[in-house]
Amino acid sequence: MIRANAWGSFATSSLIAGIVIWSFGTTEVEPDRLLSAGPRIAEFISRMFPPDFSVMPQIIKGSTETLRIAILGTLGAVILSLPLGILAAETMTPAAVYRAVRALLALIRAIPLILVAMLMVGAVGLGPLPGIIAVAFHATGMLGKFYAEAIDNVSRAPVDALESAGAGPLLRLRYAVWPQMAPVVARDTIFRFELNLRESLVLGIVGAGGIGFYIQTYVRSFQYDKAASVTLAVVLMVLVIEALNVALRRRLA
Known about the structure:
Layout: H1 2-26, H2 31-46, H3 56-87, H4 95-110, H5 113-124, H6 128-152, H7 156-164, H8 169-200, H9 212-220, H10 224-252
Helix pairs in contact: 3-4, 3-6, 3-8, 4-6, 5-6, 6-8, 7-8, 8-10, 9-10
């Protein structure tokens, strides 16, 4: 038994090592190319300093737009995910229903956010609206899965007690399931909002609004000092949001 486990570990390690070696061999990762790129990277960074803070009005506009996209996108995802999470819960719906809904949620997660944003830009035009739709759609795939798992992981004793008393699915969900899953739902939603904010930063590249539009504009026009100012604003905003999210998650723990 021990020898079988040793051979299994050796085979797994060999497979992982082989995959890593294959990856290096097929991606042209060459040390001399990395070393030769050093001066160009240094020159690029040097052109970003000192940052040009004359673009502060654009930074404020783009940052608030990105924040609105993340907030409204998360709200839309929560509204969609709550019913889908219930339908995807193994303990709440028949097998045919929850398996189909879980497959749908997996399909949604498999579609890249940037692709959804590009489709929405083509459908509804430029601006924050396609970004909000894209974030809401993409986040639903993850939140729906999280909510379903939260329902399935609750203690069954209160649920069974209400069921034996003749309570229907909605009453069991309201009085037995929801009080147990509410902290988990809040934690997962806050975590997803943070991810949505980070993802919203790049939506401007495809015209879906937000501060990413200004980063793209300044980099393409070789205004690296202005791009540096926008980048610093992005870093500050992400750090502040992350600190707030950590504080909220600790209060919910």
